[in-house]
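Please go through this chain and its backbone structure tokens and walk me through the local backbone shapes. Keep your notes short.
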Amino acid sequence: MQDVNEITRAVEETGAFVDGLMKEAARRIVGQEQMVQRLLIGLLTGGHVLLEGLPGLAKTLTVSTLAELTRAEFSRIQFTPDLLPADIVGTPIYNPKTQGFEPRKGPIFANLVLADEINRAPAKVQSALLEAMQEKQVTIGDQTFPLPKPFLVLATQNPIDQEGTYPLPEAQMDRFMLMVKVGYPTRAEERLILDRMSGETSPPLDPVIDGDTLLSARSVVERIHLDEAIREYIVDLVMASRQPAEAGIERIAPWIACGASPRATIFLARASRAHAFVDGRGYVVPEDVKAIAHDVLRHRVIPSFEAEADEIDGDQLVQAILDGVDVP
């Protein structure tokens, strides 16, 4: 208990910036508190985030705002069908003075990299991100370069307009810690958007933290207490996605083609710790796990053909798993 109290004090001291960051972001982003919080969780854990939503829902604006508030080096890559891997990671360039090749680094060398409409580019371009997302390094020619710290890929995609797109393969989807679905604002928020954004300029913002503060916060997040019962609960959720019949929810077994990978277990624990940090606690409770479970699992629990025929999606399967597994 003494250790938990010490961690809680560290969370309160280190996490003092959270409220200020959320309030400052709200000056520019109307509503979408959950999207901002999930991006903050990605920053606190180093986990990449995929934002899925219709055009005009402030996905790109939110990412650029977050970079401004954290003094992070920001890079935006517009994914298109004619994009090449070298356009992302860089390429060796011949230098006539030295009569040799020198690496020219691409836009991926930044703290926050926005992969806008990531499914607009073919697989060979999407695969250029794999090494960067997993190993936090990039290979150009015969040289390997570490990426700056912190490093985070924040990608967007449109769930409706699928003409001329290239769906992300499961291996790449699995590298995103969170997949966040972005919805429409409420009527009151829509009116506020009209009043606030009628001008041509966005309101200026004051940076809240820098990279060093963020890395310090990450070290505190890693120390947040994760009780044995919570660990077992996380494993039970992931195992239920693979073997639902053994978890007592055999009715969804025909609807699951593929369950969550071991990354889901790791990311669910990390994201739950970060969720507790945002709430100002030095320990994880089951509500933290349940609050973040959809974002961690929805793109890892793959519906079967039977599920598609019955109009059952990943979110419904995750909810069935949460309802069927006993909470500690």
